[in-house]
Amino acid sequence: MASILVCDDQRSICEMLDISLRKDGHRVETVNGGEAAKKKLSSANYELLITDIKMPQTDGIEVLRFARQSSPETSVILITAVEDYEAAVQAVKGGAFDYIHKGPGLLEELKLAVGRALETLVLQRENFAFKRDAASRNSLDNFIGSSPVIEKLKATIRTVAPTASTVLIYGESGTGKELVARAVHSCSTRASEPFVSINCGAFPETLLESELFGYVKGAFTGASQNKRGLFEVASGGTIFLDEIGEMSLAMQVKLLRVLQERTIRPVGGTQETPVDVRVIAATNRDLREMIANGTFREDLYYRVSVIPIQVPALRERREDVELLANHFLKKYSTAAQKSILRISQESLDALRAFEWPGNVRQLENTIERAVAMETGNELRVDLEADRPRARAAAASTNGHGSPDVPSEGIDFEKYVAGVERSLIESALQQSGGVQIRAAELLKVSYRSFRHLLKKYDI
Q: Which secondary structure element, helix H or strand E, spans residue 29, and what is its range?
């Protein structure tokens, strides 16, 4: 089953194709002119476009060109009642999937062409993941949005990327700090070299040291062979130290020495190994406040924050919410093989008005959940599951440290469950998925944490 747009200036042709294609299980929309087809292509995603060539004002070739620009993944089949060799050549050059002459066997030929087009689409989807390489994942094109703050962020990345300076990326959880780090790397002269990422809060101190600097055989129980550390693996490229604020003071001293000397010593080793690595760090914490509290070294702060980059929260770029939501709709509807054409206007209004304490990551999760539950061709988004987290975020900044009960009342058990779930998810994010570390952040036993994971099906 596919989503198909049919365009012909003859209503009878539209009706005939509509009936025939619907019998085969496809979702079909019809329009009676080229301009109407262009409007539809601008507002929804179609897997297949079937359009007549000879139409008044805006002909099928122009619609084909528009489709190639606005929706390049949409396959286009052109039909015509006139034998026109030149038009056929134009169609092929313009990227049409097929060209069919209107005649007694139109429906049979069209069904075969539709089948071939959809088989090609399935193959493209199956190979999509394999075709993505580091360059495409890391490029600035992955920044969805056109708001002033995002354009400013892109300009900053282009400016600082060619330098060798250390970068510190600030931002709330879920804003896309690693995406910024990857973009800095891909726009730099080191783009062809490795980009290595590690979450500093996901490892205990001893394990983090061996991950970063490596170890030699016999350094500790289980060290049966030498292992290169991530600094050595990233040599010539970039290492991204995510959540650097979670690093212990002892590890901060060791990292500071590496940044000063540009050499590493593996755990249990005696030999210094020089490394040529650009360091990009990120944090969602206030490092200046941590310096004042004695939990982060001031000398390390000045080493890693040569170039600070602030990533805006989603609530600071509300004009990008619709673009992001449509991007995630396309991503997850394709993965789920669902023909969801658009997000309902009511849902778009609600998405734009929402506070998004979890930022872009929370929006993505919300759209993914909505796509999984949607059975029609228009996405309706239920934000009820996200509201407890928003209330909890608001409560954390409330002067009294507690939320207010709304005038219409509140479902207490549902609210508390939502807060518990959001805190568990936040702890897992901060710990990089390491459950023992997440349990420590929440100050509960590992056994109790496992029970909560089972309770909330996380």
A: strand 27-31
Q: Are residues 336 and 417 in the same domain?
A: yes
Alpha helices in 245-312, H assignment, sequence order = 249-261, 287-293, 298-304
Residues facing 168 on adjacent strands: 281, 308
Please state, in angstroms and rounded to a whole number, the distance separating the CA atoms of residues 96 and 88.
Answer: 9
Strand partners, 89: none
- The last residue of one of the domains, among 256, 283, 312, is 312
Using one digit for the tens of pLDDT, what is the confidence trace for 291-329?
A: 999 999 999 999 999 999 999 999 999 999 999 999 999
Expressed as residue numbers, the domain containing 396 is: 316-455
Phi, psi of 273 (to 5 degrees): -115, 120
The first and second tokens of residue 176, run together, are 């896309």
Q: In total, how many domains does the chain have?
A: 3
Contact 244, 304 (CB under 8 A): yes
Residues 260 and 295 in one domain: yes
CA distances from 201 to 191, 197, 246, 252, 264 (A): 26, 12, 5, 13, 21
pLDDT, tens digit, 9 for 90 and up, residues 119-128:
888 777 666 4
